[in-house]
User: Which sequence fits this backbone?
């Protein structure tokens, strides 16, 4: 049998088809239509960040929070489980003795290098006492390049008003109620 | 000799060996709390129950001597023994607080290890945490030990150590049943100079070292086998370090030297490395200098001060240096200075080397390598005192001093004064040392060398046993191992290109010095003191989960 | 009733040496001293006397195990630490016929070649200590005991040692440890006390009644003893009866005497016409018998063994139909939890755990599966301990639950197999029977709970 072949696409004809006529215009108009429709729609998809901010899910893994006991002391017992489990190795802790005989130890230093943190939440899952949870805070931009500028310590994880402003984020056992007074900071936003 | 079969494997052992010892020799793991190879067996924890053919009930492996033809099945092979051990482990955990996350023993705790073992652990808990018997926590037992009575499994290792090993008899149990509690005599602080061992022999987190408490989780540590340089006993120890810092020293078992023990002074000897500031850079006439030029200068200044004036060199190396360092020191002195006085004695090391300080481990001579120095031919006999006399008589051209401050205690005021006097009297002096010490300030040239734990080498203990110490941590800044520094001096003096790598230096020593004949460096380095816990068990933290 | 052992126990003035000697005291010792040691052992062996402390081991054989090497001292220890619940026979034997006991000690010591004997007396028996001490000094002054006993060349010193009130001191090796001045932690056997006993020397530990019987046997001859009792269990046994009987007390019973007959005729039956529910025949450490099981039995070692229990120390406790068995068992279990010496793990933790579970069952806070848990804990104690007291603590628990199961099942709630606290890790803190409050308070001086819930 003799071999045959046939042209499937005529490239030149195709090119002419797109170069002339109204086909391209309709596509453009259709796109503009979407824009026009959204211009007149009352809802806004984008918001005026940073003046406006979107609330994130309760499972959002933002900057960490060290929770407190009723008396205001840190719940953390410096067990180093978060440090052990951290895949980015960005947590470092020093322990100290405490006066309270019921408590074995407490952290004298608790630091997370947030520039190295990958916000995986393993540390929070490893914590046996829910002493470490995550907030919904996400804007961490700093203007300095020194690693210390994003290394947060105990004061940062307990004392900053942003924590309360953004609300509590990821916790491994959300079925237990979160006692709000144990979350540090002034309560401003929705928790 | 009786032949015993354990889990299908046969071994011939000495008569009187217990089943657990035979199993340890075979490498078959039998769980235990109260048994310790260097303590009398007590048989109270019931954890080492094994199934012996012909016995109706499981028997304790620690207190049952082997008889010929005995067939033993451990919990790994026998359902009966496994059931028994499982039951015992469950009992031990009934009133245990299970506060592993805040317990410093976690990671090297027998109770944890055994519970995680599929053959006798991992039972579901039947006890509510609120129902446990509570005992005292954080009991102060003096400067070395903190007791948590709730975590205690009443194995009585500490009681027996205190009673039979050191004889201080300071610990005992009180009360009965599940309220049994460990107390010190009249609740006083422990007086025992070996109290640190309580934390090692305690299989759980009941007796904890106050020094190591809260410092570092054990799985974070790196381990390096070494030899204690605190006295001439040469106890085998392990340096546990993290991030280049020594966190603790714990004994390695060596039945011939220190069994499983370590004195508190030796245990804390690493702290003396931080007492004075370290020499970080070479110094020439009080100014920081570069290694290359300072080594050349040191050699040429020493030689011009001696050879030029036909006066001998006083060369003193303290017996805290490794055999390799001392050997190179001697070779350099002998080759470069035809007239020399080679010495190692700062005080009365040779007299004190075998003198006991107590009946267990400690010795009066606080230099780890006095015997090594003697074997390596440091025998001038005049000592530091003689050198001072020579210098006073103007018969000393220069001084080369290799000085390590003792890790345990301090050199006597007399010795320090003599060093000061010597440095003032000699016109030229080169001092190799680790720390900035006031009595070395008069040195013309100061060369920083690595301290103990920062260099590799061998030490010869009072018995003449040559033991190997590995390098655990890095030296600060420009400090280098003394052997290398001396090698530099030799190079600059164009006395060939000597080997300074410890293994090769040692080979040379073994070749030339009778006391070292037949010894091989690699064998010494790999000759780990008998591991305890024995082979069968996971070495602490080496389970692939170190978090690092 | 026979009066082989207790013939003179009620005689006035029997505590005085003069009266006692008049009634024939120390005749057995006099006879023994004319014989060789081996002959005395053989005579006791022939009499078939078995240990009256509980185990029932043949006394003659026990004595024959002593082989002292050159330079070794041998010790006889008289176990007068009668602390098995339900047993109170030795107390009266020592209190009313002290010379019989001393004679027995002397005979035992002579038979094993001991020149030093100790009577380890229960700490609570202070009044007995006075009586016994008086009798001892009287007999020593009279030259009966002490150097050259009864004019022979046998020297014997007897010393009295008071315990401090611990059940474990009645255990052979616990007693030895206590006598050595140590904490009464039983020793791992082997080596047995016959080889390594008191001060690491060969030692025999005998019960008071055993030695007293030996004294009577030496006085009357072995045949007089074998005539009494059964073939296997010769002689008589002191039975301390307590509980639901009209006439509780101590009875000397000839071995082989039917149990029911004994209860009905001697002990006066059960008060108020109630029916029998169960009997513990030999102290709380032996399994309980139901009324049906007890009916065909006789009072001797073999018969009791055939029913799966033991004659033990002869401390018979009778329960009538009104007894609530779980409550009775709790009392027993708490005794063992309190008295466990705490040396070895299964008994230390297991006895406390069993008592704990029983306590919560009775408090109405039981959990499903608690009965199985009790039996399992018992299985894990039995045969895993250093001394026999671990096994002893299991016997009552197991037999009570097996034989009176419906009563226990009524306490066990039905419902979830797996309590919620096991899933979530943190259970409710049960206030009703938590850990001893003083313990918790001492360790936690600050008020409030250390647990915080977020």
Assistant:
């Amino acid at each position: 049998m003799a071999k045959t072949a046939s042209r499937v696409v005529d490239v030149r004809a195709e090119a002419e088809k797109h170069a002339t006529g109204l086909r391209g215009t309709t596509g453009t108009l259709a796109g503009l239509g979407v824009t026009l429709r959204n211009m007149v729609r009352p809802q806004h998809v984008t918001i005026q960040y940073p003046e406006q901010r979107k609330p994130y899910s309760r499972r959002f893994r933002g900057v960490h929070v060290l929770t407190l006991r009723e008396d205001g002391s840190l719940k953390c017992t410096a067990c180093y489980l978060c440090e052990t489990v951290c895949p980015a190795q960005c947590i470092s802790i020093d322990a100290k003795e405490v006066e309270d005989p019921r408590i074995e130890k407490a952290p004298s230093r608790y630091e997370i290098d947030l520039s190295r943190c990958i916000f995986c939440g393993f540390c929070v899952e490893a914590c046996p006492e829910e002493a470490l949870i995550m907030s919904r805070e996400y804007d961490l931009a700093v203007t300095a390049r020194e690693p210390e500028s994003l290394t947060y310590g105990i004061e940062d994880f307990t004392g900053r008003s942003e924590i309360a402003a953004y609300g509590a984020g990821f916790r491994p056992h959300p079925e237990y109620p979160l006692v709000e007074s144990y979350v540090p900071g002034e309560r401003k936003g929705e928790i | 000799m009786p032949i015993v079969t354990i889990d299908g494997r046969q071994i011939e052992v000495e008569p009187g060996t217990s089943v657990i010892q035979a199993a340890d020799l075979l490498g078959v793991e039998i769980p235990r709390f109260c048994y310790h190879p260097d303590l009398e067996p007590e048989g109270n924890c019931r954890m080492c129950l094994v199934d012996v053919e012909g016995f109706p009930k499981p028997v304790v492996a620690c207190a049952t001597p082997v008889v010929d033809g005995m067939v033993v099945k451990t919990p790994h092979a026998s359902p009966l023994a496994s059931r028994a051990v499982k039951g015992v482990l469950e009992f031990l955990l009934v009133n245990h607080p299970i506060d592993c996350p805040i317990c410093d023993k976690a990671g090297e705790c027998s109770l944890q290890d055994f519970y995680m073992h599929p053959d006798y652990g991992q039972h579901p808990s039947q006890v509510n945490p609120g129902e446990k018997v509570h005992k005292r926590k954080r009991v102060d037992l003096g400067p070395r030990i903190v007791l948590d009575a709730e975590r205690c499994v009443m194995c009585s290792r500490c009681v027996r150590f205190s009673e039979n090993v050191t004889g201080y008899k300071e610990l005992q149990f009180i009360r009965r049943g599940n309220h049994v509690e460990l107390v010190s005599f009249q609740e006083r602080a422990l007086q025992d100079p070996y109290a640190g061992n309580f934390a090692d022999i305690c299989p759980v987190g009941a007796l904890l070292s106050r020094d190591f408490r809260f410092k570092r989780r054990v799985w974070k540590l790196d381990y390096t086998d070494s030899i204690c340089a605190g006295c001439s006993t040469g106890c085998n120890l392990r340096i546990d370090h993290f991030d280049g810092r020594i966190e603790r020293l714990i004994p390695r078992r060596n039945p011939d030297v220190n069994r499983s023990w370590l004195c508190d002074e030796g245990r804390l000897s690493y702290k003396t490395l931080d007492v004075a500031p370290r020499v970080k850079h070479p110094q020439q006439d009080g100014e920081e200098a570069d290694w290359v030029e300072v080594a050349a200068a040191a050699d040429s200044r020493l030689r011009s001060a001696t050879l030029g004036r036909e006066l001998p060199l006083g060369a003193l190396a303290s017996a805290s240096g490794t055999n390799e360092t001392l050997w190179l020191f001697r070779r350099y002195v002998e080759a470069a200075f035809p007239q020399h006085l080679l010495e190692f004695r700062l005080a009365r090391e040779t007299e004190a080397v075998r003198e006991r300080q107590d009946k267990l481990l400690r010795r009066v001579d606080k230099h780890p390598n006095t015997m090594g120095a003697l074997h390596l031919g440091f025998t001038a006999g005049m000592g530091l005192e003689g050198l001072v006399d020579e210098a006073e008589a103007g018969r000393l051209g220069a001084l080369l001093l290799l000085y390590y401050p003792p890790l345990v205690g301090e050199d006597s005021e007399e010795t320090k004064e003599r060093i000061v006097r010597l440095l003032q009297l000699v016109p030229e002096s080169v001092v190799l040392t680790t720390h900035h010490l006031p009595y070395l300030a008069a040195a013309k040239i100061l060369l920083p060398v690595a301290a103990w734990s920062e260099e590799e080498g061998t030490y010869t203990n009072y018995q003449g046993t040559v033991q190997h110490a590995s390098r655990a941590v890095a030296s600060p800044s420009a400090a280098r191992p003394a052997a290398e520094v001396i090698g530099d001096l030799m190079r600059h003096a164009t006395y060939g290109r000597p080997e300074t790598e410890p293994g090769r230096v040692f080979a040379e020593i073994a070749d030339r010095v009778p006391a070292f004949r037949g010894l091989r460096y690699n064998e010494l380095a790999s000759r780990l003191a008998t591991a305890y816990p024995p082979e069968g068990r996971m070495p602490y933290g080496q389970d692939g989960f170190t978090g690092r | 009733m026979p009066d082989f052992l207790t013939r003179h126990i009620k005689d006035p003035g029997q505590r005085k040496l003069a009266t006692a000697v008049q009634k024939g005291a120390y005749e057995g010792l006099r006879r023994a001293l004319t014989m060789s040691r081996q002959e005395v052992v053989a005579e006791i062996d022939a009499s078939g006397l078995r240990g009256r402390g509980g185990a029932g081991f043949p006394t003659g054989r026990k004595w024959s195990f002593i082989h002292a090497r050159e330079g070794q001292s041998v010790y006889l220890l008289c176990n007068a630490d009668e602390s098995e619940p339900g047993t109170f026979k030795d107390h009266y034997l020592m209190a009313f016929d002290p010379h019989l006991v001393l004679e027995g000690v002397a005979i035992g010591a002579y038979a094993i070649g001991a020149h030093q004997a100790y009577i380890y007396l229960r700490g609570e028996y202070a009044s007995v200590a006075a009586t016994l001490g008086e009798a001892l000094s009287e007999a020593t002054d009279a030259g009966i005991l002490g150097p050259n006993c009864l004019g022979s060349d046998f020297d014997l010193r007897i010393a009295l040692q008071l315990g401090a009130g611990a059940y474990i001191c009645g255990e052979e090796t616990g007693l030895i440890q206590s006598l050595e001045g140590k904490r009464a932690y039983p020793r791992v056997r082997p080596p047995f006390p016959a080889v390594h006993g008191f001060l690491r020397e060969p030692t025999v530990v005998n019960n008071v009644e055993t030695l007293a019987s030996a004294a009577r046997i030496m006085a009357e001859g072995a045949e007089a003893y074998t005539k009494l009792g059964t073939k296997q269990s010769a002689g008589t046994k002191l039975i301390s009866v307590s509980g639901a009987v009209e006439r509780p007390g101590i009875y000397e019973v000839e071995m082989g005497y039917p149990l029911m007959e004994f209860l009905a005729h001697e002990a006066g039956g059960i008060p108020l016409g109630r029916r029998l529910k169960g009997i513990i025949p030999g102290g709380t450490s032996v399994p309980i018998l139901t009324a049906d099981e007890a009916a065909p039995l006789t009072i001797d070692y073999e018969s009791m063994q055939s029913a799966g229990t033991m004659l033990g120390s002869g401390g018979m406790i009778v329960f009538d139909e009104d007894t609530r068995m779980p409550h009775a068992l709790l009392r027993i279990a708490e005794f063992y939890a309190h008295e466990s010496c705490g040396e070895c793990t299964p008994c230390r933790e297991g006895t406390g755990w069993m008592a704990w579970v029983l306590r919560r069952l009775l408090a109405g806070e039981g959990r499903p599966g608690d009965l199985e848990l009790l039996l399992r804990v018992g299985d894990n104690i039995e045969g895993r301990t250093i001394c026999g007291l671990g096994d002893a603590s299991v016997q009552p628990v197991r037999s009570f639950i097996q034989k009176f199961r419906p009563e226990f099942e009524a306490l066990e709630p039905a419902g979830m197999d797996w309590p919620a606290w096991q899933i979530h890790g943190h259970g409710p803190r049960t206030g009703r029977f938590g850990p001893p409050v003083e313990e918790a308070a001492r360790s936690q001086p600050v008020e409030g709970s250390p647990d915080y819930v977020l």
In short: The radius of gyration of chain C is 24 Å. The mean pLDDT of chain C is 88. The domain at 17-226 of chain C is CATH 3.40.50.11540 (Rossmann fold). Chain C is about 40% helix and 10% strand.
